[in-house]
Amino acid sequence: MLQKSAFLLLALLIIVQLFSCVKAQQTTISPGDNFPEVWIKVPASQADRQYLQLPAAEKFTPSEIKADILLIELLNVHCPHCQLQTPSYNALFELIESNPQTKGKIKILGFAIGNNEKEVTNFRKNHQVGFPILADPSFTLWHATGAHATPFSIYVRQNKADRQGIVTGVHLGLNTKYQQLYQTLIGMAAADPTELAAKARTISQ
């Protein structure tokens, strides 16, 4: 029994060490950076496809999403803080969609890191989530954006077609101040992408 416990402890320590090494090699995404162009599976839901205004294809990249501002949320459906944040992001989504000046211009897209589609479907149903959340079982977005803890929100100013969006802000951890965030996103949407990128780089330095 003691030998088995020692083996399990050793295995856990090895996994933690490997995780630390992988994380150390990640490039942490920051304001002023271009958002990574990664291939993502097109959602099966027609409502999600219409919301994101995606082309008819099996995969897409973030730059193809038609919007001025794209709020990307990295979460895990079993993460307590992600669950606590969901009502606030639901309220933010409703604010955006109820205002003609922001509807279609500011969009929210979630990625469930390490979760499968069934888990995501159940999460959206249980928490009444209206905005798209896509399963990311292979941790693609997690690695591409710097392997942060969840929830991790990234505010992206979409650029011209076929050009990478510009990261204008990030937030690590729980954020329930959805009304304040709403006003911040409106300001970002009204700004020129090039000037916004330059300002974001200055702030992050």
Strand content: 15-25%
Query: Would you tell me the overall average pLDDT?
Result: 85
How many extended strands? 7
Q: Count of DSSP helices?
A: 7
Shape: globular
- Give the N-to-C terminal Cα separation: 53 Å
Q: Considering DSSP H and I runs of 4 or more, what fraction of the residues is helical?
A: 40-55%
Order of helices and strands: HEHEEHEHEHEEHH
Report on the biggest sheet. 5 strands, mixed
Going by helix content, strand content and strand pairing, the class is: alpha/beta
The rounded Rg comes to 18 Å
Strands ordered across the widest β-sheet:
5-4-3-6-7
Low-confidence stretches: 6-25
Q: How would you characterize the overall build of this protein?
A:
- There is one protein chain.
- The protein has 205 residues and is of the alpha/beta class.
- 44% of the residues lie in helices and 18% in strands.
- It is built from 7 helices and 7 strands, in the order H-E-H-E-E-H-E-H-E-H-E-E-H-H.
- The protein has helices at 2-24, 46-52, 80-98, 117-127, 140-144, 178-190, 193-204, and strands at 40-41, 59-60, 69-75, 106-113, 133-136, 152-157, 166-172.
- It has a 5-stranded mixed sheet. A two-stranded antiparallel sheet has the order 1-2.
- A hairpin with an 8-residue loop joins strand 6 and strand 7 (166-172).
